[in-house]
């Protein structure tokens, strides 16, 4: 008897069938990969973007072409009304909400002599306040089995020079995740954190890191010996979103190739 064939595509992947997910900051990079991975596993996905409509539309088009369901919704999650509008749009479009991935974030490095109020507030507003506001809005819709996944960074472990504010935002996010895991546990809503290491994205290309000596140094420090790819992070997130992770909450999972 021949082995059954395995056809690639959304129809063959059903771990998230019937679920609805919101991914913030999903127009490119890690967020885009997460949106596609959740859709591949069967979820209907709201692809959030702040400014890159073209990028979000391209992600939605790729998901639909593969047989999935997705819509793009513009919102600056650091603004309370817009964060609420994003979550409400998911419920209105697909009738429910099961998964929230707080991926929106900015990374800017500055030596301590160059840290400004503007730099601090921009990073904390988007990286921390945005996650809080989106989670506050989502908590009204999430029921038993709901999953919240916050995207942090391995910088909280490595103490990288010139990253004091950025590292501070991710350390805050880690702490908030732990609190919310306990706070929402009575409602059977899980909260976990994924901390990527160095990942090649559009942002690293724009910043001149990809292909540079800095990238070579980061890879040299990575035990698995390569740079991360967006899908390396997306598959971890998809696991945490699914019922396979039903007994996992309050965890910080490093997806860093061994960097710690």
TrEMBL record:
<comment type="similarity">
    <text>Belongs to the short-chain dehydrogenases/reductases (SDR) family.</text>
</comment>
<protein>
    <submittedName>
        <fullName>3-oxoacyl-[acyl-carrier-protein] reductase FabG</fullName>
    </submittedName>
</protein>
<keyword id="KW-0560">Oxidoreductase</keyword>
<dbReference type="Pfam" id="PF13561">
    <property type="entry name" value="adh_short_C2"/>
</dbReference>
<dbReference type="InterPro" id="IPR036291">
    <property type="entry name" value="NAD(P)-bd_dom_sf"/>
</dbReference>
<dbReference type="InterPro" id="IPR020904">
    <property type="entry name" value="Sc_DH/Rdtase_CS"/>
</dbReference>
<dbReference type="InterPro" id="IPR002347">
    <property type="entry name" value="SDR_fam"/>
</dbReference>
């Amino acid at each position: 008897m021949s082995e059954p064939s395995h056809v690639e595509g959304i129809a063959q992947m059903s771990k998230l069938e019937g679920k609805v997910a919101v991914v913030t900051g999903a127009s490119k990079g890690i967020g885009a990969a997460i949106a596609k991975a959740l859709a591949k596993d069967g979820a209907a996905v709201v692809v959030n973007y702040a400014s890159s409509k073209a990028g979000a539309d391209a992600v939605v088009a790729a998901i639909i072409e593969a047989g999935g369901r997705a819509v793009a919704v513009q919102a600056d999650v650091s603004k309370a009304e817009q964060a609420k509008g994003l979550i409400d749009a998911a419920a209105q479009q697909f009738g429910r909400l099961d998964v929230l991935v707080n991926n929106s974030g900015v990374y800017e490095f500055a030596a301590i002599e160059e840290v400004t109020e503007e730099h601090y507030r921009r990073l904390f507003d988007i990286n921390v306040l945005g996650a809080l506001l989106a989670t506050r809005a989502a908590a009204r819709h999430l029921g038993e089995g709901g999953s919240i996944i916050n995207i942090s960074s391995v910088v909280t472990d490595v103490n990288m020079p010139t990253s004091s504010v950025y590292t501070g935002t991710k350390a805050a996010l880690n702490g908030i995740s732990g609190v919310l895991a306990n706070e929402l546990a009575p409602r059977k809503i899980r909260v976990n954190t994924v901390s990527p290491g160095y990942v090649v994205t559009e942002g690293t290309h724009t910043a001149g890191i990809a292909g540079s000596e800095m990238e070579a140094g980061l890879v040299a420090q990575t035990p698995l010996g390569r740079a991360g790819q967006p899908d390396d992070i997306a598959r971890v997130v998809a696991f945490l979103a699914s019922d396979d992770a039903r007994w996992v909450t309050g965890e910080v999972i490093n997806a860093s190739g061994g960097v710690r």
